Amino acid sequence: xxxxxxxxxxxxxxxxxxxxxxxxxxxxxxxxxxxxxxxxxxxxxxxxxxxxxxxxxxxxxxxxxxxxxxxxxxxxxxxxxxxxxxxxxxxxxxxxxxxxxxxxxxxxxxxxxxxxxxxxxxxxxxxxxxxxxxxxxxxxxxxxxxxxxxxxxxxxxxxxxxxxxxxxxxxxxxxxxxx
Length: 179
Prior knowledge:
The chain has strands spanning about 1-5, 10-25, 30-35, 50-55, 60-80, 80-100, 110, 130-155, 155-175. The radius of gyration is 32 Å and the shape is rod-shaped. It is mostly beta strands.
């Protein structure tokens, strides 16, 4: 909604802020453990792979968003001509972090022959990595337009419409992957 400042001038200002946060779970870290045939605790006579998950460390994720914008508009009446001057700025920030099972160079974890593969504490050996991304966007705009009748012709008035604007955008992002 505009505010009339004078019979020839009107101002309109608008703004908005929003934000949100989300937290969630992505399952459990999981890996395969290689149990050698000579492991003293193994009931197997050959080397085997045992799949385990770690219920003590659920994988989490977190995201947040923040947005804000502001804009202003001056409407100026110059006789029958109208001049509009506008400016706006918007910023957005987004971030996301997610935990995931970390990298296993061989695709599994080799257990020492003296380690009990059925000990619940070995699940703590499963690596957990944090991956985070964030982005920032900034947009700005300045503009002006002029329109209205210039002179009369037999078929009606000749009108002028002129517009000029300047806009710029700045984008930034960061992506970090843990191991």
